[in-house]
Amino acid sequence: PQVTFIAFDGTEHTVDARDGDSLMLAAVNNGVPGIDADCGGGCACATCHVFVESDWASKTGVADPMEVSMLQLAEGVTDTSRLSCQITVDDSMDGLRVRMPESQH
Ligand code: FES
């Protein structure tokens, strides 16, 4: 599936994600700036913070309690905040669009 990461300044990067990979890996494997993923996907760093556009929230699901507590360390958290390492991409997410916060610009 193709997913699009939108930087704080509006720059868009659309990449091919592999079914079953995390959204964070799709960014890192394709060199998308702004997703540092310092902890390598362990839900322990919050440098993979994204905002899921509202039409897509039903597909990406909700954060589990560990993700919710880690998100408290991220800047600019909103109701649409997720850690991209905790979202598993599947084919139903083709066209997914997520935004990145100012702190990851
Ligand atoms: Fe560290 Fe997602 S990569 S919390």
From TrEMBL:
Superkingdom of the organism of origin: Bacteria
Top-level taxonomy: Bacteria, Pseudomonadati, Pseudomonadota, Gammaproteobacteria, Cellvibrionales
Stated name of the protein: 2Fe-2S ferredoxin
GO function terms (MF aspect): 2 iron, 2 sulfur cluster binding; electron transfer activity; metal ion binding
GO biological process, one term: P450-containing electron transport chain
UniProt gene name: fdxB
Keyword Methyltransferase attached: no
Cofactor: [2Fe-2S] cluster
Cross-referenced Gene3D superfamilies: 3.10.20.30
SUPFAM superfamilies: 2Fe-2S ferredoxin-like
Pfam families tied to this protein: Fer2
PANTHER family named in the record: FERREDOXIN-2, MITOCHONDRIAL, FERREDOXIN/ADRENODOXIN
Protein family according to the UniProt entry: Belongs to the adrenodoxin/putidaredoxin family.
CDD domains: fer2 (cd00207)
Coiled-coil zones: none
UniProt KW Transferase keyword: no
Source organism (scientific name): Parahalioglobus pacificus
Keyword annotations: 2Fe-2S, Iron, Iron-sulfur, Metal-binding
Domain 2Fe-2S ferredoxin-type residues, every copy: 1-104
